[in-house]
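Worked Example 4.2. Consider the chain below.
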Amino acid sequence: MKLPEFIGLDIGYSSVKMAQIIFEQGNVPRLMGVGHSEISKPLNILKDEKEKKELADRIRTLKETLQIKTNKCVVALPEAMIFSKIIAVPDLPEDQLEKIIYFEARNHLPIPVEDVNLDHIPIAKKAVDNRTIQQILMIAAPKNIINMYLEIINLAGLEPLALETESLATARAMTYKVDMAQGALVVDFGSKNIAVSIIKGKNVIFSQSIGTGSDALTQAIARDYNIDLRQAEQYKITYGLLQSQLEGKIAKSLLPVMQIINNELNKIINFIKINLPDFAPSEMLLVGEGSLLPGLVTFFNLNLGIPVKLVDPFIILELSDMAKNEMTNLSRPAFTVAIGLALKVE
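Applying the procedure from the previous section yields the following structure tokens:
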């Protein structure tokens, strides 16, 4: 079913991002409006009605600033708040499969299965001992998280058409014009967490969140040089991992945190190679605000053993005059999720 006009809404840890796309003749996606607004607290730790109203007002004000008329939206759920796991189940019809996944979820989830909304993505089928086994990515969204999002969306005067994970939205942006012929490791470098997914074709095969993000890099600089976070952030975005800058002192502070992130990414790559060899990544695609760290692409190129690219999600879009003006001061890779949401067609 074709969706009515809507906006893509990405409510992150430190900002809200919004994008609206319409499809012109020939299904050409045209970006009508895009923008962001800083927020003081992430949605999941809001304590009272006053804080909830403040966040809702920020969303409403951003929509008005962008002159967006529709009140319908598609919203992203952060990967860090979602449970996902690859499971193997018998090859069964869909109605029977859902029952099997429900019982499997009881064995794998850290919270009662009654407290989540379950979904699944087929990955592959293979023959084992004369029977066919399906590999499935099981996705579980806690109902309390969903309810929090729905409450804020309602307070902002919006009507949700769909809620989906960040990785699904990112995959849509990555594969809108081309299928991934080989597996790709997609890394969304956020402030608090790093959302990692494996994409092949147009499908998400695997997703996981790493609990270390760009803020940890800022904190490392602040700690090493006894400076405030604002100054440390400026050093980070100016010098990053560049050994040629400031005698490599900032890079030296960042390397222990980067090694933790690199180790986690290597674990994911090795897991896929062993358990899903047909989807082993042949390249890494970097998105998210943190992906602009100077020297990051070179660091991963040297340490992961696969080619690394920084992705601009806007290159697949036609831009309205208003969108061109709005994009002047935007960090383009940070809007990958919002763009992916806005590209949803059914």
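The chain has ten helices and 14 strands. Residues 23 and 125 are 35 Å apart (CA to CA). Compare this with Example 4.1 before moving on.
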